[in-house]
Amino acid sequence: MAAATSNLNDAFLTAETNFGLNMLEKLPASHSAVLSPVSVIFALAMVQAGARGKTKTEINEIISKGANDDEIENFYSGLSKDILNAGNGVKTRIANGFFLE
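== Serpin domain-containing protein ==
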């Protein structure tokens, strides 16, 4: 079981790294930006939970390389808890929101 969990974590980390690098590569060199790829991934994970069909499949591939819904929820829930409980006197907060027009 530990090997399966390790492989799944590796798949998530690979997906996150690839997504973050691809996103940053698309930013024009002439523009300055401050962004957090993991925040974008958290937002996509929230959208994925309610998505269906092709949209859900595409988001799954981007954020998890095809993991199932429970695996995605458990991984990102655990990651957010790890970030919030960083320890060593570090206080962290996570805030994500959607703004639609």
